[in-house]
Design brief:
Helix content is about 45%, strand content about 15%. It is of the alpha/beta class. The chain has a single domain, classed as Aldolase class I (TIM Barrel, Alpha-Beta Barrel), CATH 3.20.20. The strands form three sheets. The chain has a seven-stranded mixed beta sheet with strand order 2-3-6-7-8-9-10, with helices on both faces. Strands 1-5-4 form a three-stranded mixed beta sheet, with no helix packed on it. A two-stranded antiparallel sheet has the order 11-12. Strand 9, helix 7 and strand 10 form a beta-alpha-beta unit. Helix 1 runs parallel beside helix 3 and helix 7 runs parallel beside helix 10. The longest helix is centred in the last third of the chain and has 20 residues. The protein is globular and about 55 Å long. The N and C termini lie far apart (about 50 Å). Bound molecules: iron/sulfur cluster.
Length: about 300
């Protein structure tokens, strides 16, 4: 893996903490090797050359410690917005593990987006952070079907392994759930698959599922996606072109009906799906645990 220098590591989120209660964003790696066919992070607007090539940020931990000591608000740090921090290089370099140690040392919270069960290696640190501040883990799962997940997310573990990881994290007291996002029109938008995924979420102890019934497509993200459609889903590219006509927001044709089915299933299994409720639950759960300990 190549290394690059960085000047800053934590960026305050501009839109407030409305997105999963995250206060700061952090990426320890540049680029991502998972090659999800729909990946938005490869879009031109983010200016990441050779997106599939992972580069480590050499001085990230030094800069992180400096920044953590200066922050007044011990908020939640989000990892994984632009790159899955649990890529194969993490096994050797442990950048994420070392960053979690610093986050624990300085008492900040953590929100991690991943598709990799490598996160299980760090359960000890997640538990440690959870005893001091807020922790939320979001596994992206777009389909209950392993064969399909290996086509659309080829370089990371299949959906069933991610569900098993959710179970282990949940059993360890870590607030963990699912990002069912994106929902790929004409591919992962089948009613029965959405019902099945909610059912599996319940079975494996997920506390929440958040979704957007569609996907976004822009610039070279679209080119890559269409190229992959031609490889794996013959004739679908033409269907997208005809239906969406180059639009950025590509919601599934039956999104209202699907969302109703989705929310009905979540209610049936007692799984949270509304963002405000998810934030309240994971931040409140820790406070509740603290109060219990006091009593
Ligand atoms: S894991 Fe996320 S950042 Fe990495 S390729 Fe997939 S969608 Fe892109």
């Amino acid at each position: 893996m190549k290394f690059i220098e960085t000047k800053t590591i934590l960026s305050k989120v501009k839109y407030g903490s409305s997105w999963y209660g995250v206060d700061y964003n952090m990426n320890l790696y540049k680029g991502c090797p998972h090659r999800c066919i729909y990946c938005d992070s490869r879009s031109n607007c983010y200016h990441i050359d050779n997106f599939d090539l992972v580069r480590g940020k050499e001085n990230a931990l030094y800069i992180l410690e400096k920044e953590l000591t200066k922050k007044r608000e011990k908020g939640v740090i989000g990892i994984g917005a632009m790159s899955d921090t649990y890529n194969p290089n993490e096994l050797k370099y442990e950048q994420t593990r070392k960053a979690l140690k610093l986050i624990s040392k300085y008492g900040f919270g953590i929100s991690i987006d991943t598709k990799s069960d490598l996160i299980l290696r760090d359960i000890d640190l997640l538990k440690e952070i959870n005893s001091k501040n807020n922790v939320i883990i979001k596994f992206t799962i777009t389909t209950p079907n392993d064969k399909l997940s290996k086509i659309i997310e080829p370089n990371v573990c299949a959906s069933s392994k991610r569900l098993q990881a959710i179970k282990k994290l949940s059993d360890s007291g870590i607030f963990t759930g699912i990002m069912m996002n994106p929902v790929l029109p004409f591919i992962t938008d089948k009613e029965e698959d959405i019902k099945e995924l909610v059912k599996l979420a319940s079975k494996f102890g997920a506390k929440f599922i958040h979704t957007y019934m569609g996907m976004t497509l822009r610039e070279n993200q679209r080119d890559y996606y269409f190229h992959k459609l031609d490889q794996h889903f013959i004739g679908l590219k033409e269907k997208y072109i005809q239906y969406y006509k180059g639009r950025y927001n590509c919601v599934t044709p039956n999104y209202k009906k699907l969302y109703k089915i989705f929310t009905d299933e979540c209610k049936k299994y007692g799984i949270l799906y509304n963002m405000d409720d998810i934030i309240k639950a994971y931040k409140g759960e820790r406070k509740g645990n603290e109060q219990m300990k006091l009593f």
